[in-house]
Amino acid sequence: MYIFLSHDIDWPKGGPGADHIFARRERFDEFTLGRVKSEGFNPYYGIPTMMDIEKSLGIRSTFFFRPLYDDSSTVDEYRMDLSDLRRGGWEVGLHANHGGSLNAIKSEKAAVEEALGDRVIGVRVHYLRIAKSKIQRLGNVGFNYDSSVCLTRDKVDEKNSGSYMLGDIVEFPITYMDAYIFTYMGITESNVVNFLVDSIGKLSRMGIKLVTLLWHDNVLLMKGGREYQHLLETLVSKGQVSFLRGIDAVKVTKEWIEGPD
User: Fold this and answer.
1) Mean of pLDDT over the chain
2) Which CB contacts under 8 angstroms, 24+ apart, belong to 47-53?
3) What are phi and psi of 112, to 5 degrees?
4) Residue numbers of the domain that contains 144
5) Among 12, 189, 240, 258, which has the minimal tally of Cβ within 10 Å of its Cβ?
6) Does residue 114 sit within a domain?
């Protein structure tokens, strides 16, 4: 089983602010809340921790960045992180704000590429708001793959697994998203690791070869989200999965379709 491992960077580097955090205080432990109050700590900034976890396990993943954030800051705030990701072997994709316009997506792609200093070939639209007809045309603005489709929120659906072609774009539907797991699916922190391991095993036995996992960087200190390291360690210990970046998943998919070079 291959796992396309991905992360959406939804929040500006400075975070949402203390008022936002304390309005959701039930998601955090008291130590974290204390740091927010006394230090102005931003618990939503999880990129370095996520990189450390993955590096310790020999894993590389894909991080999708928005070009413009809700506080009007831009992806430029993340230039050091982008440099670290690029040098460390991670992939950077576009987390597009404007799924309704190919011209807007093209412009956003250019903004992330300029900050990264490299080409971007993968995209996921914020809130997954993009029509199938637009996905099919993403190749026209320089993308190789998209991961903006999720057909079911409240259960694991085999239709959200694997990959398929939409025009000349490889589509990786989102099989598992942390936000959906802990809300619509009703999974708790105490059973999330077993749930995901068992579910991935079930899909594998059904003959499914690839799933896509989205885990946001801002949840690493939240209840539930903080099980990320435990989840990866458990999956690695099973020895039956391989983690991929989007760019690697594209290569694997095309080998399935066209055969090896």
Assistant:
1) 96
2) 47/9, 47/78, 47/81, 47/85, 47/217, 48/81, 48/84, 49/220, 50/7, 50/217, 50/220, 50/228, 51/84, 51/85, 51/88, 51/90, 53/228, 53/229, 53/232
3) -70, -40
4) 2-255
5) 258
6) yes
CATH number, domain containing residue 165: 3.20.20.370
Residue owning tokens 């949840």: 219
Give the Cα separation of 73 and 14 in Å (integer).
9
Residues 170-221: tens digit of each pLDDT:
999 999 999 999 999 999 999 999 999 999 999 999 999 999 999 999 999 9
Q: Name the β-bridge partners of 165.
A: 170
Residue 242 lies in a domain: yes
Q: How many domains does the chain have?
A: 1
Nearest 5°: the CA angle 206, 146, 13 is 115
In a domain, 158, yes or no: yes
Distances (CA, A) of 234 to 22, 177, 207, 224: 32, 18, 21, 15
Q: What is the pTM of this model?
A: 0.97
Tokens, residue 7: 């992360």
Sorting pLDDT into bands at 50, 70 and 90, what band is 251?
Answer: very high
Two tokens, residue 225: 């989200």
Alpha carbons 122 and 130: distance in angstroms, whole number: 14
**What is the rounded CA–CA span in Å between residue 127 and residue 67?**
15
Phi then psi for 165, rounded to 5 degrees?
Answer: -95, 135
Q: What is d(CA 195, CA 178) in angstroms, rounded to the nearest whole number? A: 12
